[in-house]
Amino acid sequence: MPEAPLICSETASRVSSVLHRDAKQFGKKHMFDGSEETCWSSDQGSSQWVTLEFPQTVQVSRLQLQFQGGFACRLCTLEGCRKGEELVKILDFYPDDVHALQSFPVQGATLDRLRITFARSTDFFGRIVVYHLSVLGEKL
């Protein structure tokens, strides 16, 4: 079966922080709105994260991320779990510090919830800026 976008209007999302608590301008919704003009911008901190809870079980095959150059992440960790379970590490991946859309394959991740942790920001203050986040795979 071909890859399909897994994030939908029923997918619940949470983020570690929002720059100046200004969700209207820098909130999490901007990662999923398809606009090249808007973004999620985290506040300062050593580790930022995004959590997604899907309305049904999914099998993830690929992540796509677009950072703002200078506010990217050198080390990201993907964790996931089924309903009622604890998050477990699936993989580490290493994005480039560029503004281009980057794609990362994921093998055998069947889950209801996932978390992407941005462990090492390229910004001195630990801020992360994400213009686009997409999770691709199959709904089960």
Automatic annotation (TrEMBL):
Keywords: Nucleus, Receptor
Homology family: Belongs to the NR2C2AP family.
Name listed for the protein in its UniProt record: Nuclear receptor 2C2-associated protein
Cellular component GO terms, alphabetical: nucleus
InterPro entries given in the database record: Galactose-bd-like_sf
Main location: nucleus
Top-level taxon in the UniProt lineage: Eukaryota
Organism of provenance: Alligator mississippiensis
Subcellular location: Nucleus
